[in-house]
Each structure stands twice: as C-alpha cells, then as structure tokens.
Write a structure and sequence with these properties.
Layout lengths: L5 E4 L8 E7 L4 E6 L5 E5 L3 E3 L7 H36 L6 E3 L3 E5 L2 H13 L4 E5 L5 H12 L3 E5 L22 H14 L7 E4 L6 H7 L3 E2 L11 H10 L9 H7 L8 E2 L7 E3 L14
Parallel strand pairs: 7-8, 7-9, 9-10, 10-11
Antiparallel strand pairs: 1-2, 1-5, 2-3, 3-4, 6-13, 11-12
Helix pairs in contact: 3-4
Length: about 300
C-alpha cells in the first residue's frame, strides 16, 4: 500500500472510494481523500483495502449513475433555455434575430487541486466563464477580498474539504469547533459579504462534506452544505454555480430544481431565494472587417 493508491475503509463497508494522500508507516495510519466526495479523513492502515478496479465497485457505479443523471438534466435545461430565448425574441421582433448570451461569471476557490480540475472542466464544458484557484481552506479568508476586487465575479464558490471531527471537544453539532473547516468557510463568507452585502449582487456558494449549513447561511451564503451533515459530491457546488450562472436575472433560481439536480440532494445542499445572473443581448455582434471609413 502506497501514496496514490485507491482504497476503501473496511469499517465503513467500503461505501466511499478514497485516494491515499500521505502514509505514516510509524503510526500505521494514512490521510485519505475521497475521489468523488469532498471528504478528507485519517484511517489506520489495517482498516484500508486497496481497490484494483474502481469501475466495478458498487459505490463507484452508484455515484457514476447519479453524476450522469445530473449532467444530462443540466444539458436538457440549457437546450430548453436556448429554445425559449429564440422563441421569445422571435415573437418580440417578428424575425429570427441572432442574440448573444452573457452567463454569470464564477470565481471558484477550492481546497483540493483534483476537485478544482474536475470543476473547471465542467465549467468549460457548460461554457460558464470561470476562474479557479487552489487555495488551502485556512488561507481562503485572507484571499477572498483581493480576488473579488480583482475579478469582480457574479458568483463565488468557496469549497474544499470538511467534516464532523471524530475526536471533537464539543459534541454539539451547532458548534463550529465540531468541524474540520467550517470555521474557515464561515470566515471567507464574512469577507465576501463585506465586499458585497446584497445577496443578489454577489451569489455565495459555500461548504463541503458535512459543513455547518446553518452557520454558512447566517453568515451570508446564498447556498450551502450540508443540511443533513452528509457527504456531498465534488461537483455539487459546481452544479449550483452553473444553475445560478444560467438563470435569468429576471427570475429567482428554482430552489427545488437546483437542489434535486445535485448529486447529494436535499440533505447535501440547501439555500435561499436568489436572482439569477444570466443575461441575453441583442443584436449579436457582427464582424466589422467590411465596414468602410467615413472620415
């Protein structure tokens, strides 16, 4: 067993596939990171079992099915949106006038470089303008304000790793000390709200696995994890950001639709009514190479 190996935990019935981040041979322990879920954990090496082919494990299959369903739903919604835009503009102008789209711009801060890579691939695939940065959770509060001033996004995603601490001082799940990184996420959200107090001015999506949902919402998040303190999928915050990016500024983001569209569902992600960030423009810019000078 070595760093980089895919493993499952025997004591948890092999419910989640992890990748070994580091190994302490002296302590016979390893730090493991979920391949699909935003979870980081310590585990005794004897409790780990190497996964040779993750494609055949039940856990991986179930996650893949949910991911495929979520992505298919997203594509279908985009197709419906395009058709609706064309229909509305045709009725308004009595002609098939080409238009252009301005989806909301996303700033994505992620405590995990692998999850960031997957997230940016999905933003690109869905044609969402996005800037991503790998930042350790503890450093996020210090970087948020400067990045917001520099990039002026419509949506900010603050995510990475989190979880309820096994050996926590307080047994109270409403205490931020019971979580690995929820305090860092809360601090980052506070900074974002110092930059923009209006929740429709800047959409904040924050949290990771088992994060303190209530604290994140009270601090100023529009959407957060995790109401049921469950593991959330790596792409759940991305799905919410894309939904916000492509919901019209004339409409509120459909809470039921966006939550049910995530892979983790209503126990994983929740939020409040929020206006979208998508705009349509008319007419579509033309190539001006043939324009003659008049002066």
């Amino acid at each position: 067993m070595k760093q980089g190996d895919l493993v499952v935990r025997k004591s948890y019935g092999g419910d989640v596939i992890f990748r070994i981040a580091t190994i302490d041979q002296h302590q016979q322990a390893a730090v493991i990171k979920g391949t699909d879920y935003r979870l980081i954990a310590d585990a005794p090496i004897p409790d780990l079992s190497v996964v040779r082919d993750p494609e055949v494990t039940g856990a991986a299959k179930q996650v893949r099915i949910k991911v495929d369903e979520s992505m298919q739903r997203m594509r279908e919604q985009r197709e419906q949106q395009v058709q609706q835009n064309e229909s509305e503009l045709r009725r308004a102008s009595n002609q098939n006038q080409p238009y252009f789209e301005v989806p909301g711009k996303v700033l994505h801060l992620d405590g995990d470089s692998n999850y960031l890579k997957k997230s940016m691939q999905l933003y690109t695939q869905m044609r969402v303008p996005a800037y991503g940065l790998h930042v350790h959770e503890s450093q996020m509060p210090d970087m948020v304000y400067r990045l917001l001033l520099q990039l002026k996004p419509d949506i900010i995603v603050i995510t990475g790793h989190d979880g309820v601490l096994k050996n926590r001082i307080s047994k109270d799940l409403y205490s931020l000390t019971s979580y690995k990184n929820s305090q860092n996420f809360v601090n980052a959200v506070k900074v974002a709200r110092e930059y923009e107090k209006n929740r429709d001015g800047l959409i904040v999506i924050a949290g990771a696995c088992q994060s303190h949902y209530e604290a994140l919402l009270q601090t100023g998040s529009n959407f957060a994890s995790s109401p049921g303190r469950v593991l959330i999928h790596a792409l759940d915050p991305v799905y919410v950001a894309i939904k916000a990016s492509y919901t019209s500024i004339r409409e509120t983001i459909n809470l039921s639709d966006v939550i049910q569209g995530t892979i983790s569902g209503i126990d994983g992600v929740g939020g409040i009514e929020t206006l979208g960030k998508y705009r349509v423009g008319l007419p579509k810019p033309k190539t001006l190479s043939g324009v003659k000078a008049t002066l």
